[in-house]
Amino acid sequence: MMSDGNLDLPEILTGEHFTTGNHATAEGALAVGCKFFGGYPITPSSEIAEHMALRLPRVNGHFVQFEDELASIIGILGARWGGYKSMTATSGPGYSLMVENIGLGMMTETPCVIINVQRGGPSTGLPTLVGQQDIMQTKWGSHGDFEPIVLCPSNVQECFELAVQAFNYAEQYRLPVTILMDEILGHMSEKLIIPDKSKIKRVNTKKPNVPPEEYLPYKPDKDLVPPMAIAGDGYNIMVTGLTHDERGYPVLNVETQEKLVRRINDKIRKNKDKIIILEEYMLDDAEIAVLSFGSVARAAKGAVNRAREKGIKAGLLRLVTIWPFPDERIEALANQVKTILVPEINYGQITREVERTTHGKTNVKGLFKMGIMHNPQEILSEIEKCV
Amino acid sequence: MAEEDRELIESHEHPLDGYLREGRIPHIFCPGCSLGSITNVIIEAINEVGFDPKKVSVVSGIGCTGRISGYLNYDSFHTTHGRSIPFAISLSITDPERKVIVISGDGDLFAIGGNHFIHAARRNADITVICVNNFNYGMTGGQVGPTSYMGQVQTTAPYGFNEESFNLPHLAATCGAVYVARWTALDVRRIKDSFVEAFKKKGFSFVEVLGSCPTTFGRRNQLAEGKKILQHFADHTVLKHDADPKETKIEKNGPFIVGKFVDIEDKPTLTDNLLAIQRISQASDKKS
Hints:
CATH class of the largest domain in chain A: Alpha Beta
Helix content of chain B: 25-40%
Number of strands of chain B: 10
Strand content of chain A: 15-25%
Mean pLDDT of chain B: 95
Shape of chain A: globular
Shape of chain B: globular
Mean pLDDT of chain A: 96
Number of domains of chain A: 2
Structural class of chain A: alpha/beta
Strand order of the largest sheet of chain B: 2-1-3-4-8-7-10-9
CATH architecture of the largest domain in chain A: 3-Layer(aba) Sandwich
Largest interface: A-B, 47 and 45 residues
Number of helices of chain B: 10
Order of helices and strands of chain B: HHEHEHEHHEEEHEHEHEEH
Low-confidence stretches of chain A: 1-9
Largest sheet of chain A: 8 strands, mixed
Number of helices of chain A: 13
CATH topology of chain B: Rossmann fold
CATH architecture of chain B: 3-Layer(aba) Sandwich
Oligomer: heterodimer
């Protein structure tokens, strides 16, 4: 249970808690200033909506349970243009319904956060059992070319911290950011320490510093990100999902498409090093690397520890940022280790990416499960086979 | 001609110039289409109410009517197909002083976006929805839509449409809209008065405007010019304020029942209710 916290700072419950991943994510969003949640119930993410329904009104925010996920995602885009930091939470089937308007968020450069607490798919699949099957959906789900930012926590503390980080990336780079959780993480309870308000960084979009007659809403600064005026600022903004020029006007030609789409990709690609978060564990002298993410990384770390106890030089590379993908780091790892072992709860979505980035320089081995997490012993057995 | 009118014409300026975005005209609408005059009426109605322009947002979906938002010089949002209403709801919630107007077509609002309309009316979201009903999908080349009538010929109904059509005022009234009216594009003065009433109304207001689409609707239905469609409306329109919305279904040869059908006062809006929840939750905070 969350404690009542400090009533003077009701959006930040500084202190020690014992709580679930779903609640921790909701608290992270509140701590960074989220004021609007639009969502639709779906297992195993519903506790996030329930917690936001309880907490948001108390911090002068609004919770709306929409009629479906289509409304939820477009609703959070609308809220952000109205000036409220906003988020939604869902699982695989709901994310499938949202992808069109995640594309609208990419095209209109709208900051917002989407939580996907993954379950098993395809289709209705395994509503109550874990999955890591939405990796590619977050990258390629919406049509057209864009570079998403996707973060993937492995423990309850990180659910809180990455919720803060997701909002900050969304604001800094102006795009929808997805947090890929999973059923195990969403429902498990652990210690969460919420820091003091002064320790929680809040990033806000740049505002225009020119008068309305000089403002070009889609003219980027050097960092390729345009300052953002919102509804009511007096800039008479025009926001469209059509290909648009710097004024925001639809201009349907090759030059405008080339310039716009290149920029919304480059603003992430060129800042990749600042966005990618990795955990490296015992990799310095490793000969076998386990590459893992989400809940499974917990078992992977346990397996690496046991392997080390047995004298096997194993290490862990944990992806905290899934997209953009850390191509260079993995390529470097391929030059160091004999094998990269990739345990994941799907049929090889990240394994395929690792194969792509290692260019055959090392042995890449996927270890796939469905509906259940690997246990450390299973991963250890695979490590031992690789020796 | 009055001297000032002559000066205006010779200056190549238009009285509504400042309300339209610079560099966006000429518009994409076909000759004979009623969307130009409806755009005009929207601006006149906004002016008549006297809104602070900063507090006006216009939201639309996809289609010919959906393009109107992009010509208007207010904060304007051209969203995805069918999704204008939930976007507008959130925009309205974030500032109770903001007037949010949704302007879109029949296919956008009632086929792909129908569910959002139903729930927005049920929640009494504080927005005005204007639907220009031209009986077909114009932008994609003239397919049938949810408001097409029995026997109507379109590209996807080459043998004539054989489904029931949606009666929009009935749907809106049933779902809880506090203001419901219908006009034809010919009734510009009445449309303007009705928009003014709808814009002033707190809560979910809905105005249907029967529009003229000579290019993709009229051409296939013996009404190949804008004026023929308007004449058809004029010949078959029946003004009937307070008509039972159940009785306002549209058939090929009318009657096109127009008027104001619903006007309810003082029903709490979604925004009112959300603000009330804030007060309740914060009062319980203080108690504990």
